[in-house]
Amino acid sequence: MTDRIPMTPEGYEKLKEELDRLIKIERPAIIKAIAEARAHGDLSENAEYHAAREKQSFIEGRIQELQAKLARAYVIDPSKINQNKVAFGAKVRVIDIDTEEEKEFHLVGPDEADVKNGKISITSPVGKALIGKEVGEQVTIKAPAKTFNYEIISISFE
């Protein structure tokens, strides 16, 4: 897995903060919880011990996952991108040609995507359709249930 993961500076920092929290706070706390549970005696019927070990396994797995993502991260500063076209990190305002409803999409890397907050992956159908387009251009996005027709009304990089 040598594929680079595009990421905004904010997304990179968010993952770093989570990793730091897991290593500096969560890991020591679970080690302490395991030691305390172990002190209660028979481990075969010690629910606290087994729960703590399970949580430790989850934490260690997440630490490894975050370390791998951060190692493969390619941080892209949107402010240094050609701002005439939709690109990674752009906030794109569109109008649905059929319903005249306005929407805003923030194009981010796959690990930062959060559809509920308008952050869509550049690898999603919407992201792929918008990349490289300019204000005034129209895009058609075919979804399983419906086809969307958007016109780009603004592009910004913040």
**CATH-scheme architecture of the largest domain:** Roll
Unreliable segments of 5+ consecutive residues: none
- CATH-assigned fold name of the largest domain: Chitinase A, domain 3
Radius of gyration: 22 Å
- Biggest β-sheet description: 5 strands, mixed
Describe this protein's structure.
This is Transcription elongation factor GreA. Belongs to the GreA/GreB family. One of its GO terms (biological process) is regulation of DNA-templated transcription elongation. The protein has helices at residues 9-38, 47-72, 125-130; strands at 5-7, 73-75, 91-96, 102-108, 119-121, 138-142, 147-156. 20% of the residues are buried. The chain has 158 residues and is of the alpha/beta class. The strands form two sheets. It has a five-stranded mixed sheet. The chain has a two-stranded parallel sheet with strand order 1-2. β6 and β7 form a beta hairpin. α1 (9-38) packs antiparallel against α2. The mean pLDDT is 89.
List keywords for this structure.
single chain, 158 residues, alpha/beta, Helix Hairpins, Chitinase A, domain 3, 2 domains, five-stranded mixed β-sheet, two-stranded parallel sheet, 7 strands, 39% helix, elongated
Topology:
Elements: E1 5-7, H1 9-38, H2 47-72, E2 73-75, E3 91-96, E4 102-108, E5 119-121, H3 125-130, E6 138-142, E7 147-156
Parallel strand pairs: 1-2, 4-5
Antiparallel strand pairs: 3-4, 3-7, 6-7
Helix pairs in contact: 1-2
Could you give a quick summary of the protein structure above?
This protein has 158 residues and is of the alpha/beta class. It folds into 2 domains: 5-75, Orthogonal Bundle (Helix Hairpins), CATH 1.10.287; 78-156, Chitinase A, domain 3, CATH 3.10.50.30.
